[in-house]
Amino acid sequence: MYLRVFKFLILIILLSFSELKAQRFTTSPYSRYGIGDIFSGATGHNIAMGGAGIAESTPYFLNTVNPAANTDLLLQRFVFDVGFDVKYTKTESEVQNQKNSSATFRYFAGGFAVKPWWSFTFSMSPYSAVGYLCKDTVNVKSGDYTRKYAEYFQGKGGLSEVSLGTSFKILKMFSVGVKGKYVFGDIEREDSLNTIASDYTSKTIFKNEEIIRGFTADFGFLAQKSFTSKKDSSKTFLKLAAGVYFSGNTKLNTRSQLTMFSRNSLVGSTDTIANDTLYDGKITIPKSFGIGISAEFFEQLRINMDYRFQDWTNFEMPVEKNASCFKENKYYGMGIQYVNAKYSSRYYKTINYRFGIHKCDTYLKLNGYDIQEKGISFGLGFPIRTLLLNVSCDFGTRGTTDGGLYKEKYFLMHFNVTAHDIWFVKRKFQ
To answer: Are 355 and 333 in contact (CB under 8 A)?
Structure first.
């Protein structure tokens, strides 16, 4: 049985890895700037808690944000977590609106403890996503003749990451951890100018492909303290934790390839005008840090609060020399989780209930307006033997219709399964 489960999970890993580059994770016009929409890295149950979880360390879930917060994993148990998203977005401007939907792979993660004080984790997930299509039409009149020009801006791709982390418990109360990450991906941006006449259509296309590769690392620290009942020392009535993670400036190898070609409906062929390497060097992902606190009461109610910061003020890409649209990125999240009785024989008492809110000052400032995001989330966790099926929902908005910009209203449904499997045990009977 376990061999079949293992083979199935390996298949999920391979399919998920291929999907990292094959899928389109966003349809936002704001993904046109920088490296696109950046993912928070939170797992499914934290998504329902406003994305908060830097200081959360439990035997039941993996922490993919703070590499130090995995030292409570149990010996001889392997924890797997795989998640998928379904997202509906309505994008509005001052004159029109558009609806989009997508279903995409979100992440795969696994972890285990080799010693009571030492654990390993690994994961693969999107790092950022680019996916947009904008159109602008202009009519130019010369005498009695009017010529129509249509300009298209579109982009796709993004960055993905594969990580391997380890954490150590020190003096019972403290934990430290490190996570190494390989970030890779391609971002394609294409601008085309269409000349539309009565008898023909010509198109000039500028296609820029950014090929990005590089290694980076996150470091984490966690302090936690449990308080037991005086009447029953086996029961914990309060568990407090504080965590922090940080990463330095990261230089990623980047190659920018420009291809320029033209098409004409009369000729019916495509001519390549230019194909050159514009840039072959490095871009710098700015340093970041996050701090969080967590409190658990009577092993029933958990409260998480997070703050994250990353300064993109001086960020530049070869195709985007003007850094005036980038600013500091600040994230605030808070969430609660409640379960009546984890080990009750009555199923309804074992269901996890979650709720959260978040606010994000994104790293973009356009036309004088800060692009902000805010949302409310909730979710349920259903235990099924050694599995926990989590369903999370997130309602939110981003941006504004002022200044010729766009406002996005989104509804995200996230599904993930957390599996606990017993490993490294020699069985006498099969």
So the answer is: no
- What's the farthest any 2 CA atoms get from each other in the chain? 94
Q: Could you give the angle at the alpha carbon of 352 between the alpha carbons of 350 and 353, nearest 5°?
A: 135
Which residues constitute the domain of residue 79? 25-422
**For residue 20, what are the contacts with CB-CB under 8 A and spacing of at least 6?**
105, 124, 125, 126, 160
**Helix, strand, or coil here: 57?**
coil
Total domains present in the chain = 1
Query: What is the mean pLDDT of the segment spanning 215-244?
Result: 89
- The answer to whether residue 15 is domain-embedded is no
Residue 316 has which token pair?
A: 């530049």
- Yes or no: say if 52 and 306 are a contact pair by the CB < 8 Å rule: yes
First-to-last C-alpha distance (Å) of the chain: 9
Q: What are the tens digits of pLDDT across the range 169-202?
A: 998 899 999 999 999 999 999 888 777 665 566 7
Query: What is the rounded average pLDDT of the residues 67-92?
Result: 92
30 inside domain: yes
DSSP string computed for 152-168: EEEEEEEEEEEEEEEEE
pTM score, two decimals?
0.88
CA distance linking residue 307 with residue 175, whole number of Å:
20
Q: Kindly list the distances between the CA atom of residue 375 and the CA atoms of 227, 260, 300, 328, in Å, as whole numbers in the listed order.
A: 34, 41, 25, 19
Which range is least confidently modeled, 51-55, 117-121, 272-276, 307-311?
272-276
Token look-up 């300064």 returns: 311
More confident position, 324 or 147: 324
Is there a contact between 12 and 108 (Cβ–Cβ < 8 Å)?
Answer: yes
Between CA 170 and CA 174 the distance in angstroms is 5
105 within a domain of the structure (yes/no): yes
| Listed range (48-57, 104-113, 231-240, 350-359) with the worst mean pLDDT | 231-240
Using an 8 Å Cβ cutoff, are 377 and 335 in contact?
Answer: yes
Q: What DSSP letter does each residue of 289-321 carry, written as one string?
A: EEEEEEEEETTTEEEEEEEEEEE-TT--BTTB-
CATH code, 37: 2.40.160.60
Inter-residue contact 56 to 188 (CB < 8 Å): no
Kindly tell me the number of DSSP H helices and DSSP E strands found in the chain: 2, 17
Question: Residues near 393 by Cβ (< 8 Å), separated by ≥ 6?
Answer: 48, 377, 378, 379, 411, 412, 413, 414
CB atoms within 10 A of CB 302: 23
DSSP 173: T
Other CB atoms within a 10 A radius of the CB of residue 413 amount to: 15
